[in-house]
Amino acid sequence: MHRFKNTLLSTVIALSVAAAPSAFAHAHPTTMAPAPDSTGPAPSKISITFSEAVEPKFSSIKLTNMEGKSADPQSSAAVPGDPKTISLPVPTLPAGTYIVHWVNVSVDGHRLQGSYKFTVR
């Protein structure tokens, strides 16, 4: 009986350790449109899909030109029915290079932020 308890305890501990990384993971960007360092026509929106669901109230996308001036008169929002994606509608952008600034808070409370550039021809 003692041996059974030790085996059971070892199994429970091993399963707990194996599951721990997912409980402490961060929501990293998996798909960004427009793509980082891309060049193309002006997008009508910017969207970022993350590896995990994010909290819409604490997650956002901002767009600036290279001088740091805001290029997004609207606010970003969660995409309905997709808890991993946030989107920002943008006005018609003139040719130039722009910087996407993003912040997310995953549902487990971890905060990440980053930025990337794209160019409109």
Automatic annotation (TrEMBL):
It comes from the Bacteria. InterPro entries: CopC-like, CopC/D, CopC_dom, Cu-Rt/internalin_Ig-like, Ig_E-set. It is found in: Periplasm. This is Copper homeostasis periplasmic binding protein CopC. Residues 26-120 form the CopC domain. Belongs to the CopC family. SUPFAM superfamilies: E set domains. The keyword Signal applies. Residues 1-27 form the signal peptide. It comes from Acidicapsa dinghuensis.
